[in-house]
Amino acid sequence: MTKNPFSAIDLQRIIYLGGMMGVQPVVPFDFKELEIVARKRLSKEAFAYVAGGAGLESTMDANRRAFDQWQIMPRMLRDVSNRDISIELFGQRLPSPFLTCPIGVLELVHPEADIAVAKACASLGIPMIFSNQASVKMEDCAGVMGDSPHWFQLYWSKSNELVQSLIQRAEKCGCSAIVVTLDTTMLGWQTRDLDSAYLPFLRGMGIAQYLSDPVFMRLLDEPQEAALTIKPKINLTTIRNLITTVNKYPGRGFFKKLRSGKPMAAVRQFINIYSRPSLTWEDLSFLREQTKLPILLKGILHPDDARKALDKGMDGIIVSNHGGRQVDGAIGAFGALSSIVEAVNDAIPVLLDSGIRSGADTFKALALGAKAVCIGRPYVYGLAIAGQAGVEAVLKNFMADFELTMGLTGCKNINEISKELLTKAV
Ligand SMILES: Cc1cc2nc3c(=O)[nH]c(=O)nc-3n(C[C@H](O)[C@H](O)[C@H](O)COP(=O)(O)O)c2cc1C
Fold it and tell me: How many angstroms separate the alpha carbon of residue 215 from the centre of ligand 1?
């Protein structure tokens, strides 16, 4: 698994030779085109959920602009006939500097959801970060990944017992790191979803990790905190949504489940406990005691927070603004990278997500000190277009594009990528 399973040049050849036989790639290479094609496959609500950001979506723009502020300065005549894009992360050799971001509610995009992503990642040796809001429970995804690396992303809920249970399950199903997402103590003001009054969790979607958790299910039998409820108007939409919710709940017998009231109670309980806005740095010691696995903090944008992560014994950082879905008007994630790399001073790996759209973005991130990058929306669009094959295509394209960018800039491997190969945009 240490070597890139294919070369960029082979991929180019296959594509261009295919063209000679009239075969056109199904999954577009350009991100904007990818989004356009994916949009046609998705419901209005699903597309809005994936593509949207918070407020005016200016953080999404900032994510892209940050990359434009640096340019690559290619070097010549350096024998780049052999190119190795593999990296080492937490003692593990990985075939490329790519991981997939944890993305919730993938059932909105494709019926195979997380399973399709897990299979695609495993076929390329790319680590998949299982989302806390996945549509398929982590054990099932791990089951199709074999030895291929997978991590678990945690949302810290109000119940420490639930946190403990999720971490134990992640360890049991072979996750090799825990990612704690810090930027979602509350849902951001996501204007597109608000416009269509659409939150998939209320329909029982994206809560598979909870419905498969013994602690969560046990808590269902305990008295629940009252949630804001509005007496539902019974119409066709209410009935359709109720059916979806009941069908998502584990077990057989639709009417039995409906009468038990449990499916609706599970959704209510999820809403009540899924996040804990009161979290502070002090809480991290609890997590540190729960596992020996590396813990990464996702959502760090300020160098002081990076220093605090170090003080708290954390093992890695993912610089991220959640793809612009949480704070509108925030710094572009790539713009925050340098100061965090400097603050951490090589003590722990720094990864980056939010706005990675090409091999060049990846090259720039690595040149400024990221050890790896996580791909988000692009693979979700690949999933929408062609399921597992679509995710595979997107991931392969990233690997090939990056390999060529690296080679054409005069680097044979990741170690040769450095800040000296970048300049501030002119
Ligand atoms: C539809 C969607 C769902 C997401 N769900 C999660 C999640 O469950 N957990 C999490 O930590 N981040 C989640 N994220 C954020 C991603 O992990 C990542 O930070 C973001 O997608 C990066 O931005 P980009 O996709 O624009 O590159 C989600 C992002 C999107 C677009």
Answer: 26
Domain count for the chain, please give it: 2
pLDDT tens figures, 85-102: 999 999 999 999 999 999
35 and 157 both lie in a single domain: yes
Indicate the residue among 273, 295, 328 that finishes a domain: 273
Residue closest via CA to ligand 1's atom 11 equals 181
Report if residue 238 sits inside a domain. yes
**Does residue 84 belong to any structural domain of this protein?**
yes
- Give the number of the atom of ligand 1 that is nearest the alpha carbon of residue 206: 8
Whole-number Å distance between alpha carbons of 414 and 403: 10
Do 362 and 220 lie in one domain? The reply is no
Contact between residue 152 and residue 129 where contact means Cβ atoms under 8 Å apart: yes
Q: Is position 13 within any domain?
A: no
| Ligand 1, atom nearest to 357 Cα | 27
Please check whether residue 308 is in contact with residue 281, taking contact to mean a CB–CB distance below 8 angstroms: yes
The tens digit of pLDDT for each residue in 249-298 reads 999 999 999 999 999 999 999 999 999 999 999 999 999 999 999 999 99
Nearest to 182 by CA among 57, 346, 299, 334: 299
State the angle between helix axes of 377-408 and 44-51 in degrees (0 to 180), rounded to the nearest 10: 50
16 falls within a domain: no
Say how far apart CA 365 and CA 353 lie, in whole Å: 9
Atom of ligand 1 nearest to the CA of 378: 25
Of 248, 273, 298, the residue that ends a domain is 273
Domain that holds residue 85: 28-192+276-424
Q: Could you say which DSSP state residue 301 is in?
A: -
Beta pairing, strands 178-181 & 128-130: unpaired
The residue ranges of the chain whose pLDDT is under 70 are 1-5, 226-229
- Residue 334 Cα to ligand 1 middle (Å): 15
Ligand 1: which residue has its CA nearest to atom 26?
323
Q: Which residue's CA is the closest to the ligand 1 atom numbered 28?
A: 103
- In this structure, the answer to whether residues 329 and 370 fall within a common structural domain is yes
354 CA → ligand 1 middle, Å = 8
- Pocket of ligand 1 contains residue 322 by CB under 6 Å: yes
